[in-house]
């Protein structure tokens, strides 16, 4: 019994004494409580900053921040603010840590203790098992209203019937280039959306399928396009596992996938698209010029041909584009004959109608004569009359600048072309010879692109992604100006025109017959299967050299550049350079140099390129910029985005680039030196940028506010 009484007394004492001890500690250990609160606030602030870094990265990717994360950040701000208020109360009631008023001391200590415990609880809630963000599916694709033609309506209805058929999984749409396949499949997607046949509709252009070396990258693009529409994050998934993850998700979706402009077989299972009968809710529509490809290689169950427009349909489209003036007594007979020359092909009709809109009768008659008398041209998959119409439209573009840009766009790519890349190349080629600033060149480029779009020779591009920190888009923030593309038929015509004198744009798929390139001005070489480059490439007229799909082990001979003194643009990507080829200094007119995704050692030779205006080393493995770069006093744009390994930028290099207008260093160099460090070996400091009076566009990362110069920076915060 005595033991029980003792045990109870001990327990009662514990419950009574401990609270009394704590209450007394509020009076006599006041400083320890406030110090503890201060320490916990600092730790919480660091945790908050760490979360904000992740949140900022997610926001820049376009992800949505999870509500629980935002609530946590709000709670951190709230408790931190309360702690700051308590600090103010302490300063009012106490002097140098001494509080003569026992009541104030007690209340402040108790409040500090409570808030410290709350902070501990907030810290413990920082764990976010699902991450701080999630992918947001883009808004469902909405296509514009398309002109309805009776001949097309019947075809569209037949395809819609096929989509409603549970036994129909793979459907083909075929027809010659320019006949309107793309328009029809987009219209198909819109109608399927209106009828709510699917939860998601995905339209993807796969023009890259005509270039075998781009297949793997193209597959990744398809996967990412579909994943984006589904809100599925594939970034953390290994490439080898993406197809399986995507297929698993698609088997739970009712989805329409449209692959447009197919040139070669695409292994859908390799992409992650279920193509067999085990998932009937995933319907696939394929569009191509080649019916056999769709039936035999892609195993389309039914293929629908797209025919030319009927005569009255063609006239209706032409009149709608050119305006009602074509109905005038004087113009109508000639306009009718011009439409007949287009042979019912929408791309020819629209292009010619836009070019002749608001012109006089004489101009119309002249156009008719030129269309009829043009020399026949044979391009695979392009109707002769389509070629004639598009070539005529090109010939009647006003000004060499816009013509040169048109040919450059046709030569560069089968897919989207970033406006940023166009600007860099156009600057290098001196398309805008009378324009001296990067900003003015951008305005000019946007204007020329608009001219080509108005003529239907250029189209808006899609939303492209920076898979490897591709060209900075700081100069083109407007979504409508980020990228452009060409209709596949327009591109084929542009390439054919570009291949002839006096342009001589050359696209080569191998290393044979190098002698045939000696008169060329533009050369694009696919180096995938090239074992070695020639000892010396003699191209005295060459202005643009683009080497694609280069093997990292491919060696560029030191004498390779000796015979190309007029070279203005050089693009070398994904190569290993211990040192740059010694004859690079023999390119006195080089204005744009791209060494993207390269492994770079000693690049001091760059300092010899005195006319260089654009230098890009995006995503390259480079540790140190050479001091010789300070000699590039004509440089307008320096892009070091994604140079993760860059640790050293010697002092005074950046401040020497006196003409620099755009500096891009996203996820790159962060080792800025602090102000006042006089060591000659130290890194660049931020105050150097104040010397660049032409600098208008900048993207850098500063890890600590202490690195900012005391005087005002060159930009306004």
Chart the SSEs and their pairings.
Layout: H1 2-28, H2 30-61, E1 64-65, H3 67-93, H4 102-124, E2 133-134, H5 150-164, E3 170-174, H6 181-194, E4 200-205, H7 215-230, H8 239-250, E5 255-262, H9 268-271, E6 282-288, H10 291-297, E7 302-305, H11 311-322, H12 332-341, H13 346-356, H14 361-373, H15 384-395, H16 400-412, E8 417-418, H17 419-428, H18 438-454, E9 459-460, E10 483-485, H19 488-498, E11 505-508, E12 522-526, E13 544-548, E14 569-572, E15 576-579, E16 592-594, E17 599-602, E18 614-616, E19 637-639, H20 653-656, E20 662-664, E21 697-699
Helix pairs in contact: 1-4, 2-3, 2-4, 3-4, 5-6, 7-8, 11-13, 12-14, 13-15, 15-19, 16-18, 16-19, 17-18
General description of the model:
Belongs to the disease resistance NB-LRR family. InterPro entries: AAA+_ATPase (IPR003593), Apaf_helical (IPR042197), LRR_dom_sf (IPR032675), LRR_R13L4/SHOC2-like (IPR055414), NB-ARC (IPR002182), P-loop_NTPase (IPR027417), Plant_NBS-LRR (IPR050905). Keywords: ATP-binding, Nucleotide-binding, Plant defense, Repeat. Among the domains are: 12-135, Four Helix Bundle (Hemerythrin (Met), subunit A), CATH 1.20.120; 150-305, P-loop containing nucleotide triphosphate hydrolases (Rossmann fold, 3-Layer(aba) Sandwich), CATH 3.40.50.300; 313-382, no CATH class; 591-716, Leucine-rich repeat, LRR (right-handed beta-alpha superhelix), CATH 3.80.10.10. It has a nine-stranded parallel β-sheet, covered by helices on one side. By secondary structure, it is of the alpha/beta class. Residues 4-18, 20-24, 138-143 and 464-471 have low confidence and may be disordered. Helix 5 crosses helix 6 and helix 11 (311-322) packs parallel to helix 13. It contains 20 helices and 21 strands.
């Amino acid at each position: 019994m005595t033991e029980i009484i003792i045990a109870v007394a001990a327990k009662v004492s514990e419950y009574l004494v401990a609270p009394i001890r704590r209450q007394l500690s509020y009076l006599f250990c006041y400083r320890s409580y406030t110090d503890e609160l201060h320490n916990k606030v600092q730790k919480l602030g660091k945790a908050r900053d760490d979360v904000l870094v992740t949140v900022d990265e997610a926001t820049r990717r376009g992800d949505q921040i999870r509500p629980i994360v935002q609530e946590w950040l709000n709670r951190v701000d709230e408790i931190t603010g309360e702690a700051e208020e308590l600090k103010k109360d302490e300063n009012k009631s106490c002097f140098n840590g001494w509080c003569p008023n026992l009541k104030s001391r007690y209340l402040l200590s108790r409040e500090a203790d409570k808030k410290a415990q709350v902070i501990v609880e907030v810290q413990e809630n920082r764990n976010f098992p699902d991450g701080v963000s999630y992918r947001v599916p883009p808004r469902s694709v909405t296509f514009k209203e398309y002109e309805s033609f009776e001949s097309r309506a019947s075809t569209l209805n037949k395809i819609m019937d096929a989509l409603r058929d549970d036994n129909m999984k793979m459907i083909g749409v075929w027809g010659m280039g320019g006949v309107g396949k793309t328009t029809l499949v987009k219209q198909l997607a819109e109608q399927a959306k209106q009828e709510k046949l699917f939860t998601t509709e995905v339209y993807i252009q796969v023009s890259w399928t005509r270039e075998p070396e781009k297949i793997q990258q193209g597959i990744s693009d398809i996967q990412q396009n579909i994943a984006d529409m589904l809100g599925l994050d594939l970034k953390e998934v290994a490439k080898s596992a993406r197809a399986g993850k995507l297929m698993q998700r698609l088997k739970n979706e009712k989805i329409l996938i449209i692959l447009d402009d197919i040139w070669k077989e695409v292994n859908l299972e390799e992409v992650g698209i279920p193509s067999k009968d085990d998932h009937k809710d995933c319907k696939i529509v394929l569009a191509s010029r080649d019916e056999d490809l769709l039936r035999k290689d892609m195993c389309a169950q039914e293929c629908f041909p797209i025919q030319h427009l009927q005569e009255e349909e063609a006239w209706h489209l032409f009149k709608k584009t050119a305006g009602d003036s074509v109905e005038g007594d004087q113009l109508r007979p000639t306009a009718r004959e011009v439409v007949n020359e287009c042979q019912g092909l929408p791309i020819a009709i629209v292009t010619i109608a836009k070019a002749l809109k608001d012109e006089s009768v004489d101009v119309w008659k002249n156009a008719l004569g030129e269309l009829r008398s043009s020399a026949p041209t044979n391009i695979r998959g392009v109707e002769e009359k389509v070629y004639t119409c598009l070539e005529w439209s090109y010939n009647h573009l006003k000004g060499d600048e816009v013509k040169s840009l048109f040919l450059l766009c046709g030569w560069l790519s089968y897919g989207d072309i970033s406006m940023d890349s166009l600007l860099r190349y156009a600057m290098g080629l001196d398309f805008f010879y009378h324009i001296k600033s990067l900003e003015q060149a951008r305005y000019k480029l946007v204007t020329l692109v608009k001219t080509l779009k108005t003529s239907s020779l250029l189209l808006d591009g899609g939303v492209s992604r920076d898979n490897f920190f591709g060209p900075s888009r700081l100069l083109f923030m407007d979504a409508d100006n980020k990228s452009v593309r060409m209709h596949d038929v327009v591109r084929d015509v542009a390439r054919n025109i570009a291949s002839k004198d006096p342009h001589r744009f050359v696209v080569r798929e191998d290393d044979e017959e190098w002698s045939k390139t000696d008169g060329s001005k533009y050369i694009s070489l696919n180096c995938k299967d090239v074992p070695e480059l020639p000892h010396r490439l003699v191209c005295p007229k060459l202005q643009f050299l683009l080497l694609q799909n280069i093997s990292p082990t491919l060696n560029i001979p030191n004498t390779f550049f000796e015979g190309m003194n007029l070279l203005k643009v050089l693009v070398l990507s994904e190569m290993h350079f211990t040192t740059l080829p010694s004859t690079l200094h023999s390119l006195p007119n080089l204005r744009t140099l791209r060494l993207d995704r390269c492994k770079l050692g000693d690049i001091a030779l760059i300092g010899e390129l005195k006319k260089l205006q654009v230098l890009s080393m995006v995503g390259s493995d480079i540790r140190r910029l050479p001091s010789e770069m300070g000699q590039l006093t004509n440089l307008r744009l320096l892009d070091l985005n994604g140079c993760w390994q860059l640790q050293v930028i010697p002092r005074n290099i950046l401040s020497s680039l006196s003409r620099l207008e755009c500096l891009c260093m996203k996820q790159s160099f962060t080792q800025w030196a602090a102000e006042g460090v006089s060591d000659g070996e130290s890194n660049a400091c931020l105050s150097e940028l104040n010397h660049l009076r032409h600098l208008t566009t900048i993207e850098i990362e500063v890890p600590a506010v202490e690195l900012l110069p005391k005087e005002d920076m060159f930009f306004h915060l």
